[in-house]
Amino acid sequence: MNRCFPEGFLWGSATASYQVEGGALQDGRGPSVWDTFSHTPGKIKLGHTGDVACDQYNRHAEDIALMKKLGLGAHRFSLSWSRIFPTGRGAVNQKGLDYYRRFIDGLREAGIDPWVTLFHWDLPQSLQDDFGGWQSRETVKYFADYCGFVASAFGDTVSNFMTINEFMCFTDWAYGAGEENYAPGGNLDRKGVNMVRHNALLAHGMGVQAIRAAAPSASVGLAENALVCVPVIETKPHIDAARKAYREMNAHFLTAIMEGKYLDCYLEEQGADAPEFTAEEMAVISSPVDFVGHNMYLAHHIEADPSSSSGYRVLPHSASYPHMHAHWIKVSPEITYWAPRFVHELWNVENIYITENGCACPDQLDDSGRICDTDRIFYLRNHLLSAARATSEGIPLKGYFCWSLLDNFEWADGYTYRFGIVHVDFETLVRTPKMSAEYLSLVASENKVL
Ligand code: PNW
């Protein structure tokens, strides 16, 4: 079994602004929908908010030093739109911009390549109040303006931009009537949600174009959590079924971006609730990307089913299926092989990155007080073995970003789930690398699964 990665394989960590920065009211930052939502009683476990989070806004030098010590070559993080434009548009907040300049320069000086996500869910509240957020084309237009502004401000030093992180979480879960608790907490019907999805795709496409125009030499992509389909048994019929399922089950996001069209199966399924769109919009949505960033945590197991019209069936998970501390993470290490393979096979993508993979684990101390997260090491090792299988078969998987560098504000779960390879004491804000940090650090330095 191959355990080695190709030379130049990128090793990094990942975070997002609202989850780590804190400094919610500092230096002129405007509120985002997550500030409002987290301050609404009953929305977040234990009433937690991101007001302070990991206080990275004031402790970024320490965090950069930590990454340097771990020997990670890249760091993926997002910008708080409302820190740069407090109302999402209009006058720039220079202090907010200066913060990101300091952060990016600090990473560069430490030899860490900054990978910038433009939007990781923290929509400026003002765009929600004035236009209904992603329900409106105004927000789409202001997002493109913001992308162009950021690319011209940082295009001299940032080589990799991701427009948007994970469509489903800030569209379906944020604007639809579901059990999930995502800001701003809307209650739209299916047609409304489909239009929000469509606007989000358009924002991505316009963002790609705006970044290219402002920073022509930068690479532009996205970080999407497309549903990962894994053949339940590795035979040709099941593999073919899983590839088809992957394309069709992601028809409303990644497939639309890669193919410039909504598949008939999606339009038929939605019927009168299907999004309204023009050919011109689909061309914008499918603006070429330089890489596909793929977040992945769990699998949908697929079997070929000749008796169904789709030709495939999604299998249920039994009650004893292994999961991590956050129960939705059903462990399927095969995802880091199949997702890159299908992205490559379906759309000829030549640069694929795992932009998030990781898990939550409760703290487990050993006799000496070390955080001994052997469960996370188990999770990472097995996912990395599948990733190494992908690269050894010539699939152009170019890098791996672990979610997350730090324990952080896990959205509606507050601080109750710890995804970090570095522990954060949320009383003292002291950072302590866990055993998994040592693990990832050694893997990165040897470029090999250990
Ligand atoms: C991602 N699911 O969210 C986000 O990009 C991160 O901000 C987040 O902290 C991380 O994963 C861990 O949750 C997801 O239920 C949330 O399938 C939920 C799911 C997937 C991704």
What would you say this structure looks like, in words?
- By secondary structure, this protein is an alpha/beta fold.
- It is 40% helix and 14% strand.
- The protein has a single domain, classed as Alpha-Beta Barrel (TIM Barrel).
- Strands 1-2-3-4-5-7-10-11 form an 8-stranded parallel beta barrel, surrounded by 5 helices.
- Helix 10 (190-214) packs across helix 14 (279-285), helix 15 (335-347) packs parallel to helix 16 (374-392) and helix 16 (374-392) packs parallel to helix 17.
- The model has no long low-confidence stretch (mean pLDDT 98).
- The structure holds 4-nitrophenyl beta-D-glucopyranoside.
- 4-nitrophenyl beta-D-glucopyranoside is lined by residues 16, 19, 165-166, 169, 225, 295, 297, 328, 356, 403, 410, 419.
